[in-house]
Specification:
Rossmann fold, 44% helix, globular, binds pyridoxal-5'-phosphate
């Protein structure tokens, strides 16, 4: 069931979004977002909101953030034309290369931005949650860079599944704390980090990894990740000579997608978010929150979630750990409800095939998360031939080798084909 707003409300909210007026002062993106947290957490969130208002757009902070993006993260990341893929698909394909950013994905943009903010706020230490370990690694690296101790909460089940990332975090100086409560995965890790934060909201900074959760996180993360879309927009004009007809990004919590889409909301570009379709359409078989979920409250925000008829949050499945989450950022829920962005799903097998095709045609091993965007872009191109498209290449796939090894390459096309 996709939520839809009445046409007049939809166009009013979309106007406000394009003008940069959302979230409103209550942290709402139209009907979505807000802050649904226990009383004990209110002071921590208010402190953070105050800090964001004071520092995020302050000239000094921005100068420091831009310098770190340039000198340490390696921005601007390249915009790459994909000639062989373009020929195969019968359309002009451009890739925004977040895989080239330090630590291998877009997550570092947010991590270094929030680590700098933590410094400004006078925090003595940083805590973060992680599922697959990618945000934990980015947070550990960013904290080392700014000189703050970092503790990463990680579900015990995930620690076992993602052992190499646990080692990476420790080498980067972070303490990794095993979460044995709840589902022992990402959701439990977020709950546990929140619980820790309450104990010392002024000494601890909570570095959240995606554009999800209670206000001001969805706003803060979007602002830090928008550098992706701002750069891509300029690079398209400069290198391709025009904006794309359509742009695609994979959606887990939604941070790389909102970063790419937000600066393009006012343009004549079809925007498409691609979620994890997993192994099928049944509840529990996928993580297609927007494509198949219903509205509800999850971890502090009113948004679209995967839940059963009793409102129990549903476990998800995806071949890519980074898309395996039963909620999604509230701004995406609004963009869907207004019709501005379309959200679709691509399954495990399609993602694997797309990953192989990109390897073989362009010499780029993309992340399994990202491969979902390629899978759907390919399908779209068959229905919309001879266009110009942009794909957010959110990260690199080296981390996925253990999974890929279990799925031997099936598409075999020689380089001369
Ligand atoms: C974590 C991750 C994602 C999913 O997170 P979003 O917040 O939805 O962007 C996508 N791609 C890569 C490479 C990731 O590491």
């Amino acid at each position: 069931m996709k939520s839809q707003l009445p046409a007049d409300e939809a166009s009013a909210f979309l106007d406000a979004a394009i003008k940069g007026e959302l979230p409103d002062e209550r942290g709402r993106f139209g009907p979505f977002g807000g802050r649904y947290v226990p009383e004990t957490l209110v002071p921590a969130f208010e402190r953070l909101e105050q800090g964001v208002r004071e520092y995020l757009h302050d000239a000094d902070f921005q100068r420091e953030f831009q310098r770190e993006l340039r000198e340490w993260v390696g921005r601007p990341t390249a915009l790459t034309f994909a000639p062989r893929l373009s020929e195969r698909w019968g359309t002009e394909v451009w890739l925004k290369r977040e895989d080239l950013a330090h630590t291998g994905a877009h997550k570092i943009n947010n991590a270094i931005g929030q680590a700098l903010l933590a410094k400004r706020l006078g925090a003595q230490r940083v805590i973060a949650e992680t599922g697959a370990g990618q945000h934990g690694v980015a947070s550990a690296a960013a904290c080392a860079r700014v000189g703050l101790p970092c503790s990463v909460y990680m579900g015990a089940v995930d620690m076992e599944r993602q052992a190499p990332n646990v080692d990476r975090m420790r080498r980067l100086g972070a303490e990794v704390i095993a979460v044995e409560t709840g589902d022992k995965t990402l959701r439990a890790a977020i709950d546990e980090a929140m619980r820790k934060w309450v104990t010392d909201p002024s000494g601890i900074y909570y570095l959240l990894g995606s554009a999800v959760g209670a206000h001001p996180y969805p706003y803060l993360v979007r602002e830090l990740q928008s550098v992706i879309g701002v750069e891509a927009r300029e690079q398209m004009i400069e290198q391709a000579g025009a904006l794309p007809d359509a742009a695609f990004a994979c959606v887990g919590g939604g941070s790389n997608a909102i970063g790419l889409f937000y600066p393009m909301l006012g343009d004549d570009i079809e925007l498409i978010g691609v979620e994890a379709g997993g192994t099928g359409e049944g509840l529990g078989q996928n993580a297609a929150t927007l494509a198949t979920g219903t509205p509800g409250v999850l971890q502090g925000a009113y948004t679209m979630i995967l839940q059963n008829d009793d409102g129990q949050v549903q476990e998800t499945h995806s071949i890519s750990a980074g898309l395996d989450y039963s909620g999604v950022g509230p701004e995406h829920a609004l963009l869907q409800a207004t019709g501005r962005v379309r959200y679709v799903a691509a399954g495990d097998d399609d993602a694997l095939a797309a990953l192989e095709e990109l390897c073989e045609t362009e010499g780029i091993l993309t992340a399994l998360e990202t491969a979902h965007a390629f899978a759907y872009a390919r399908r779209w191109s068959q229905e919309n031939p001879r266009k110009r498209i942009l794909i957010g290449n959110s990260g690199r796939g080296d981390k996925d080798m253990p999974t890929l090894t279990k799925h031997p390459a099936r598409i075999r096309t020689s380089a001369s084909a």
